[in-house]
Design a protein that fits this description.
alpha/beta; Rossmann fold; 2 domains; 6-stranded parallel sheet; 6-stranded mixed sheet; 14 helices; 12 strands
Length: 390
């Protein structure tokens, strides 16, 4: 069995859905493989949804999709997947760009409500604007699925943040030991690109990265962990990483991970600009910046989210709700570790390279202990449905 196939099976066995749900024309959100349903199945879903929730325009269902940002790789892939599913189902799709901005998200929500959307898929970054955005939909009784950032009353769809973070952090630590040996622990600096504006849920991802890293390098000094704000953009990550490099001695291993691949790419570019590429090792989150990963020796892995499959979940979830079926409060992506050694098995347009020089082991016992701490955290009391059991 190949390393990549083993990694896939290993990860799927370890990643339970956050909640259970029932079947809906062959779709079970808690046990779904993520591949697109047939047009026939989608049209059958629409027929049942229309019978229960007739279109507001009297003709066909209209869905709104407010993208996080339409010119970033992850957002582009999510949007295209939603478009494919909406077209196959015969759903009219209204698309807006939230532009990583809370007030813009509010304006888009008001527009969708005014245009009498039957359902809305929200992808917006500022947790403080979630309640205000939802007010526009609640007044018009419009159902909502929220991607990655929870909003009150909306179904959550997105990352299994604790697990994806823990996977990435533990992989980075083990890769660092393989590349730098004892210097990784004694001299290395861990730099984590965070996204404070999005609140405690994405923070479970970056805190998971740190926890996973420390699970594999338990004696690593906490004084050599640096956190920077990425604001979810390559450019801002580049600037902040450039500033952080002034705190890292020349020649010390620089170990980088972040909230997403775009941020990681900006951080890597900053290191390269300073001429310190020989010292850096990077693990991403999202696996949507594939060209960067296969083109950069330092970019050794990324936790896959498969944004090109998001619409395969989102459109059926929306139709399931419109049809009056019970839907889990939270539906999570199943994550896989993508490396240059196994990328061809998931993205055939790329060739696989040699396997890494170490055998990655997920620290399951430490992860269970990490989950227990999350469940005891008062700040996460309202979000326990987003924390897996194991």
């Amino acid at each position: 069995m190949s390393f990549a196939r083993y990694a896939l099976i290993f990860c799927l066995l370890l990643v339970p859905a956050l909640s259970s749900g029932g079947q809906f024309h062959g779709f079970d959100p808690a046990a779904y493989d993520g591949f697109m349903l047939s047009p026939e199945a989608l049209k059958a879903m629409v027929a049942e949804a229309v019978e229960k929730s007739p279109p507001k325009n009297g003709e066909a269902l209209v869905f709104g999709f407010a993208n996080l940002q339409r010119d970033m790789s992850f957002g582009i892939k999510v949007e295209k997947s939603i478009e494919r599913n909406a077209e196959a189902a015969g759903i009219e799709l209204l698309i807006a760009d939230n532009r990583l901005d809370g007030p813009t998200a509010m304006a888009n929500a008001e527009s969708f409500a005014r245009r009498r959307a039957d359902f809305v898929i929200e992808f917006q970054t500022d947790v403080n604007f979630g309640p205000a955005v939802m007010q526009h939909f609640d007044r018009k009784m419009i159902g909502v699925v929220a991607i990655d950032i929870p909003m009150p009353g909306a179904t959550f769809f997105g990352a299994n943040n604790p697990r994806s973070g823990f996977m990435g952090g533990s992989y980075l630590a083990q890769a660092a030991k393989g590349r730098f040996g004892e210097r990784a622990m004694k001299e290395g600096y861990l730099v984590v690109g965070e996204l404070p504006q999005s609140g405690v849920i994405p923070a479970m991802r970056t805190e998971g990265q740190i926890a996973g890293f420390l699970a594999s390098l338990p004696d690593f000094s906490l004084d050599r962990i640096i956190r920077i704000d990425t604001k979810n953009t390559l450019q801002y990550s580049f600037q902040q990483m450039g500033n952080a490099l002034g705190r890292i001695p020349l020649g010390a291993p620089i170990l980088i991970t972040a909230i997403n691949d775009q941020s990681v790419s900006g951080m890597l570019r900053a290191v390269q600009q300073k001429g310190r590429e020989a010292d850096v090792l990077v693990v991403g989150n999202g696996a949507d910046e594939q060209e960067t990963m296969v083109g950069e020796e330092a970019f050794v892995a990324s936790v896959a989210y498969f944004p090109e499959r998001y619409g395969n979940y989102l459109i059926p979830i929306a139709l399931m709700r419109l049809a009056g079926h019970s839907v889990p409060q939270a539906v999570a992506v199943r994550h896989v570790m993508i490396t240059p050694a196994n990328i061809c098995e998931f993205y055939p347009e790329y060739e696989c390279e040699d396997a890494p020089g170490f055998d990655y082991v997920f620290p399951q016992k430490a992860f269970v202990q990490h989950l227990a701490m999350l469940k005891d955290d008062p700040a996460l009391a309202d979000y326990r449905q987003l924390i897996p059991d194991h």
